[in-house]
């Protein structure tokens, strides 16, 4: 029987199809062909564990390892051989203002890796980008805004004017615009659509808000007052985000504890905006107000959803 296995490696993601009666050695050779790596270990499961790649194990059939539907993470043990062709430097990651890169991750020796903050662009779509990245979505803001809008209109009894604070058609029309913020309502809906628990850690209070409790899988995002980022696990900080682990079993509370520990570090660095009294400016009409409540009211009255925090000197 043919099975598909997802493979994550430093050079990207791919899928491998193999007959489950093939030997493990054949699977390893396929991974070598796909990744162009010669020497590596393979990890799988939650939490990650090593796949037995001994010579004896390579003579066993693939089906004996329970890899159907699994994701194999490739960990190189030697640098890949590449031609010496000059290349442009990789783009710099988005970093919080005033915070150094080494302050956005915590080493996790027990799992041979790091828990890390993946900082989202400050473009009014951070919540959608943070969530969509955990599922490897292309153009997540457009895709998820449309899915949320459709879901709201398909569930009129649950998402009515009282819940939304506006007529559903107006609310969904505004939500499909790229400069409109997403929040708790959208997280709750995305939890239902993707059948995943979303844990949102508030940096200021360290409170954890859960959307969709009782699901089998969980993703973790970080809320810093007016911005969302994604929490991920990586085995090496030099690896691209494509090989991150961003979804975990809801039985794995250790990862939630580690994410909260990272949030505590960011709290000490004041990586949050106090939304109770910060001064905010509408970037569309230059309206100036105070706090998220006034911003929400302005958005309802005008449809303007692009705001920025004003510095008071």
UniProtKB/TrEMBL annotation:
**GO term, biological process aspect, one:** ERAD pathway
- Domain OTU residue range list: 115-234
Q: Which UniProt keywords apply?
A: Cytoplasm, Hydrolase, Metal-binding, Protease, Thiol protease, Ubl conjugation pathway, Zinc, Zinc-finger
Spell out the molecular function terms from Gene Ontology: cysteine-type deubiquitinase activity; zinc ion binding
Q: Name one GO cellular component term.
A: nucleus
Query: Where is it localised?
Result: Cytoplasm
EC number(s) given by UniProt: 3.4.19.12
Q: What is its main location?
A: cytoplasm
UniProt KW Protease keyword: yes
Catalytic activities: Thiol-dependent hydrolysis of ester, thioester, amide, peptide and isopeptide bonds formed by the C-terminal Gly of ubiquitin (a 76-residue protein attached to proteins as an intracellular targeting signal)
**Functional description taken from the UniProt entry:** Hydrolase that can remove conjugated ubiquitin from proteins and may therefore play an important regulatory role at the level of protein turnover by preventing degradation.
Query: PANTHER family this protein is in?
Result: HIV-INDUCED PROTEIN-7-LIKE PROTEASE, UBIQUITIN THIOESTERASE OTU1
Q: What is this protein called?
A: Ubiquitin thioesterase OTU
Q: Which organism is it from?
A: Immersiella caudata
